[in-house]
Amino acid sequence: MIEINHVNKWYGPTFQVLKDCTTSVAKGEVVVVCGPSGSGKSTLIKCVNALEPIQGGDITLDGVKVNDPKTDLPKLRSRVGMVFQHFELFPHLRIIDNLRLAQEKVLGRKSDDATAKGMKLLERVGLKDHAKKFPAELSGGQQQRVAIARALAMDPIAMLFDEPTSALDPEMISEVLDVMVDLAREGMTMMVVTHEMGFANKVADRVIFMDRGEIVEDAKKADFFGTPRSDRAQKFLSKIL
Ligand code: ADP
Ligand code: MG
Fold first, then answer.
1. ipTM of the predicted assembly exceeds 0.95
2. Which DSSP category does 84 fall into?
């Protein structure tokens, strides 16, 4: 579903943020990306839906080349759900309207259909009683669940997550991870930047470890936790586990 081939990227003329990164995410696969702060994790997943351009290599999404000037980027982005650390809901819109907006504007769904789909997804993330509230009336964990529901409302072919729980109070982390675990078990294709190794252990198929712009490890979960090959990954794991 996602293919990343020999990707190189610079910020400015001299700082190479991604160095010959190659990996892939198969349909239905869950890949966790971890590594120290500043290693390029956010940049890598932003490149997948062309929020950041690349200067070398190729990325394809469901067979469509992302870094091709002829690719319809708004259309491509509408097919990939993205959930960030900060929930980025529209503050002036009620929860249900947050879920309806892109369905109507981007996919052209009728208002009734978009509302029905939104309500179904709110029920799925345990928030159907909050549909009429504004984002500020919800907790951080609830807002992040809305953000996930909003992404799912677009029927994405894959979901990208960038540290979705790292801005949350500890007691709210599990309610968000539980939604993500369900999604993974239902077969969603997912690329997840997170340091929640409990989540990785439960549902990841593979774990990627990045350091200084390089993919240092890309291994099946059992191999990653069992016998990480590089010193850098071992050091990182010993700090966070
Ligand atoms: P991570 O998500 O692993 O913490 P990032 O991808 O956010 O890493 O950042 C990787 C490196 O690129 C960091 O050194 C960061 O400061 C730098 N960086 C990130 N975004 C930009 C940008 N828009 N312009 C210049 N440098 C950036
Ligand atoms: Mg980041």
1. yes
2. -
